[in-house]
Structures are given as C-alpha cells and as structure tokens.
TrEMBL record:
It comes from Streptomyces nigrescens. It is a peripheral membrane protein. Its main location: Golgi. The lineage of its organism: Bacteria, Bacillati, Actinomycetota, Actinomycetes, Kitasatosporales. The keyword Membrane applies. The keyword Membrane applies. This is GPP34 family phosphoprotein. It comes from the Bacteria. Keywords: Golgi apparatus, Lipid-binding, Membrane.
Length: 217
C-alpha cells in the first residue's frame, strides 16, 4: 500500500500538512481548491479529461484508473449539460474540493501516513486534525519539493506542484524569506500557465475579494 505512487492531490496535502499538530499550513478552503485542481491535472495526464473553450471540462474516457482518489474525482465530474457543454473548471474546483480532500485523507490513512482526530471547539463544534502516522510521507514530500525547487522545477509535475502551491498561498508558508521572492513570482507565472491551476487561482482570488468586501464598513 505505502509503495503505490502518490497522486498529485495526495502530495499537495502532505506538503501542506503540519505533521505534529495535524493542521494545514495554508487556508483550509484554498487548499481544498488546490486538491481538486491537482486531481484534474492527474486526470488530464491520464487521458481521462480535456478542457475546451471557457475552461469547460469534458470527460473523454470514463474508465477507472484503479486509484481511489482519482477514480472518485473522475466519477464526480458531471456529463455535458443540455447544450453539450462540460462544467467550468472553477465551478468544479469549488464544488469538489471537500470531497477530494476526504478521498485523500482516507487514502493517506490507509497508507499509514496520517491519523484522523476529531475534536470539538468550545466543547460543541466538531473539527478534525490529521497528525502524522507511523509512515513518514510528509518528509519525503518536502524533500521532493525542495529538490524540484533547487533544480528550477524542470518537469511538468514539479511545475504543477509549484503552481498549486502558489495558487493556494502555500508558497508563502514554505518559502518565507525575502530571497525567495523571485522564485515565488515564477511560481505565480506557472499558476497561470495551467488551466486547472488558473481555475484554483481565480477561486482563491474571488474568496479574498468577497472577504475584503464583507470586512469593509
């Protein structure tokens, strides 16, 4: 089980995880958008989906891949509407973020990489924490990201991870010093290159704008 390659959404979740406290480094909702975008990236790579005009997603091959995370995401993609159009990427990213996160958590629990702990805020409101399990996958995920960073993100997967980290504001927590500003600008450019990470970027930006308007007097 632990030797099975990680999907991109699993890798992103591990990269964002604080293993001791079981919390995420970046905003939980932004991360969920990123996980959905990462699933789209893997499905495109596997030839299961394409994107057309207006960033609308079309399922081109509904056959399962044999991976619970990606197969769950694929099954959650709706068929074409009455006009024969697929769902917009940003809309799906918003809709599917929480289910994709749950798929990732279950899979990483099975791998022994994390544990789920349910707690209650003020003794009333349940919430979850995901501290590291017996199998360390967070450390290797961060090592792979550091190696890709050091090499200038030379391959597609590395650029996608950089793009997802930027789109979800995770880069601000992973690359804190001022010396990383040029790298973070490059990662932001990556986020605009890929249609699915651009959709994540737009969803996050709209959330920030809505929060800013709500806070205005």
């Amino acid at each position: 089980m632990t030797g099975t390659p990680l999907t991109l959404p699993e890798e992103l979740l591990l990269l964002a995880l604080e293993p001791e406290r079981g919390r995420f480094l970046n905003h939980a909702r932004y991360l969920r958008y990123g996980l959905a975008g990462a699933a789209l990236a893997d499905l495109e790579e596997a030839g299961r989906i394409t994107v057309g005009s207006g960033d609308r997603i079309t399922v081109t091959n509904p056959l399962p891949l044999g991976d619970p995370v990606l197969d769950g995401a694929l099954a959650a993609l709706p068929g074409p509407d009455k006009r024969g159009r697929g769902i917009k990427a940003e809309r799906w990213v918003r809709r599917a973020g929480r289910p994709v996160q749950e798929l990732c958590v279950r899979r990483l629990e099975q791998r022994g990489a994390l544990r789920r702990e349910t707690r209650r805020a003020l003794g009333l409101f349940p919430y979850a924490r995901f501290p590291a399990g017996a199998v360390d996958l967070v450390g290797p995920a961060r090592e792979r990201f550091a190696a890709a960073l050091g090499a200038g993100f030379p391959d597609r997967r590395g650029r996608l991870m950089a793009a997802l980290a930027s789109a979800t504001d995770l880069d601000r927590r992973l690359l804190i010093s001022r010396g990383y500003r040029p790298v973070r600008r490059e990662m932001k450019r990556f986020a605009r290159e890929f249609w699915m990470t651009h959709a994540v970027q737009r969803a996050v930006r709209q959330d920030k704008e809505a929060a800013s308007h709500a806070a205005s007097p």
